[in-house]
Task: structure prediction
Amino acid sequence: MLGKKLEDLNIKKNETVYELVRDFSKVGGFTAKKLGVAYEIFEAMEKDKECVKFFSFPADIISTGIRGVVKDMIKNKLVDIIITTAGTIDHDLARVWKNYYNGSEKVNDAELRKNQINREYNIFIPNSSYGYILEEKLLPMLKDISKDKKIFSTYELIDRIGEKIKNEKNAQESIVFWAWKNKIPVIIPGFTDGSFGSQIWMHYQKDKSFMVNTLEDENLISDALMLGGGISKHHTIWWNQFRGGLDYAIYMTTAVDWDGSLSGAKLDEAISWGKINPKGKFITVEGDVTILLPLIYSAYMH
Result:
């Protein structure tokens, strides 16, 4: 029990993010310790050539600047398959054509409503930057995409959209573009939950032969290895009970575990379901992913 001495964190002048995050695993203190261990798992996972790396995340972070980190991870091929929610496509595509804005949570929301501005905590999203632009851009794309094919998996449909936006001015800032470019499937289990799903439904009103078959998504992920984080987290870990559990897993969350929620459930709990291999490398890191993910990614790139 007393085999590993606790060390102080000594930050040196010109210390890199890599050195800082690696030192976290030595200081033995709370979330910093967990982040250091998470980095070690991440590095081991990336070095494992047999590992199929799943990256799951919720949509809200894509409305923030963390979109750039996620995009770069896809651009640099650090992940193999993405599982996320419909809002990811909303925010990613909307920002190809329109801007989101820094705001504040200390604001009169009734005034924002009068000015047609939506608030996501401290991010301001004008109506013109969300539903309106997505309807304007996506409906013609869906009409064109469905000319030669009528039934799609979610990853096939998103792949087609990625190809459609390739000539847009801001395409290279897009998650969808780089997923298409690098042939990384994007799976959305709850694809109707968001403006993206609304556009699919609106197109369906005019073309009843158009269909999204989510069972094709299941065929793709039925025997893969996954890295996790609501519905996107569970979809990532669910299939692994049929292959002996995940060999690597890093889960970042701000949710609590005492209410029995999946979002708050530590990865240890998933062992009892067979979704995590008891001999695997895994850790749950409590904290805000908009801080934690850039630290791990920056350390790895250093």
